[in-house]
Each structure stands twice: as structure tokens, then as C-alpha cells.
Amino acid sequence: MRWHYIPVLMLLLAFLAMPGAAQGVKYLYGSPDLSATIAGTNEFAPGAETGLTVVISNSGLNTHKIVGSSLVTPDDQPNTAKLVTAALKSGDAPFTIKTDPQFLSDIRGGAAATATFNVKVKDSAEPGTYVLPLELTYTYLREAEEYGSDLLRYNYQKKTVTLPLEVRVTPDLQVEVLDIRTESLNVGTEGYVYLTLRNAGHDTANNAIAKITRNGASPLIPTDGSAYIGRFEPGDTVDVKFKVSVANSAEPQSYPLDVAVTYEDYEGDTVTSRSTTIGLPVGGKIAFEIVSPKLTLSPGSKGVLEVTYKNTGDAPVYNAQARISAVDPFTSSDDTAYLGDLAPGETATARFEVNIDGDATVKEYGIDSEIRYRDALDNSKISDTMKVTVALKPREGTIFTNPVFLIVIAAVIIGAGYYIFVYRKKR
Predict the structure, then answer these.
(1) Are 193 and 214 within 8 A, CB to CB?
(2) Which stretch of DSSP H or E encloses residue 404?
């Protein structure tokens, strides 16, 4: 190694370490230049609620720069938008802005930031192009004054600019329910729903199909939930018919049902309108009650059960048949009886022949009974199980009414007659 180069190397290092050797930078001219665009689509249907994302870009430039060893470099550049706040306004557009102004911090020259606003288009919005004003408030470095070699004074300028965001409201179909009628809609049965629909929107629907769907956990369940409409122009009305079943767990009250229309829109795309929720009244469950008094029979006898049934429900039934399930100590070969049609509140009496075992215990018995019927839509249904109360009591009267005694008397009479017949024949 050549040792005589060491002093020269140390001198160069000392020059580099001197404070005055650093090169300072100062920008004389420049300012932020902000613009805004919508990320994604700018088309919205009436009634839509969505997040509108706005991209805010800063294309501001610094046009003049000074470099010198005596300059102190400022912390900020003139084209940096500092402490940016973005506020979206509705202006004259049929939009509701649900998001407060958003703080975006600093946006340097050549950089961008995003802000998302929750917006809702009014249901009554007319199709067309609208402008949403975006108000941007920020601060930028207007000037940095030097005082000596180690002091800078910053002069900031606050500025507010309003940028237009163009949005478009598209035509759509809006379902308006003008009339609602129901037929035979009762708990535990099927019924019909008749609706009069109107196209309250601005789009002509082609190949339109009206549909009903279940609303959440509603007990109304569509069983035939589509009706073809065809061409459905703005202002047109149409009558449609659907079939709906009602769960057994429902109560007699109104329940929700959703109505919508699937169609081909103005661009030829298949879309579905926003659902409209309606309320449908549901009648009480079809039910029956045994209204005849308690029946009394005796062990070892054959009797007739006359049972009177009453339709205590809210709807008529058709071709009703009553049935009993005879169990020990009862037997029956005639356990079904025809009742016919029963309107709410009407009664009908059924007759069942039964035999009672002779060794049956004297007490009250409950014989299961049910009714099979058809509802208004000709669906076969079976009622809840009812109890026919039968009390077994011993026969009343003298000994001459006792079956055992009568058998003994009959045997004695037959024996006596046979003896007399033989005796006379011998003489």
C-alpha cells in the first residue's frame, strides 16, 4: 500500500462531511392540480343503494427547481395537496349522500387517493345524466422563505375546488301492486292470490314474468309462483294469479309476500326488478269438534255410536268422511261414515256399529276419530285427531235381564220340552 495517499484521502472525507457541502433544492413554481373520476360503473337504477368509489388524482407539477449548497430543502413540495378532505354533494341530482366528508391526508404530485361514499338513488328518479359535485379542500405550500442558512418560513395556502362527477340513472321497471285478492287462503291449506300489477317505471319490459317469493320465514310458501306477462310497457296494468300454501304453524293474520318481475331490459339483458312486499290475510285453520254428548254402552253388547261433528274452522270442506279407530275392548266392521260438505259452523252426524267385549272393564274410553276431506282447491286433507268418549256401565234391571240367567232359563226350558216330548211318545 502506498502510505503517502492516506492524507489526501482523509482530506477528501473531511470535505464531504462539512455541513456546507450538502446541495439544497428549492422549487420556485408549482401547485396541486386535482381531478376526480368514478371507479367502476357510473350507471345506477332508481332505488339503488351502493358504494360509489371516487379516485382523486394529483397531476400538479413543479416547473422550476434551484439546486445550491447554500439552500435549505423544504419538507413539502408546492405540488403536494396536504390535508385533503373530500365531500360529495347531491346538487340537483336525485341522489341522497349518506356518507360524511372524508379525510384523505396528503396527495403528492403524481399520486392518487380513493374515497368511497354510500349513495342512494331516489325511487322516483327520472332516467338521464346528472352531476354530483365533489368538493375538495386542501392546503399547499405556496412559498418557503429562507432566513439565513438554517431557517425557513413556510407560507401555506388553503384552497377549495369543486369537481363534477357525471352519473347516469338508467330506466327500469318498478312494480306497483294496485289490488290484492285472496281465495281459500287458510292455515294449513292452499289458496289463490290475485294481483293487479302496474309498471310504474320507465323501461319497457319484454318477455316479462311476474313472480312471487317467500319473504324470510313467512308461512306463505308459493306453490305456483310464476305468471307470464309478455310485453309490459310503462303505465301498463296486468292481472296475475298465483297459488300459495300456508304452513300449519301459522295464525289467522296477515303475512308478507314478495312480488317482482323478471324481464329483458332496454339493452336486452335479463334482469329482475326490485321486490315489492305485500301483506296477505290468512284465515283460521280448518278444524272440527265433536259436539255430541258422551255415549254409554255396556260390556258384552253391540251398539251404535252416533257422533256429531261440527266444522269449527273458517273455510268449507267437501266430501268429508269420518273414521274411528276401534281398539280393545271395541271392535267394528263399520268404522267409516260419510258426512258430505260442511260449511263453517255446520254439523253432521255419523253412525258407527261397535261390539264390546264381555270382560271389558267398566270405565270411560276414548276412541280416536279423524275426518278426511277436500279443501276448496280439491286437495285431500286429514283433520287433527279427536276423541269419542264412551262410558261402559253394567246393564241395569232385574235378574231376568242378566244374560247368564237368560241362558240358564233357556237351557231349562229346552230340556223340559225335550223331556215332555219323549215321555208322551213312550205312552
Answers:
(1) no
(2) helix 403-426
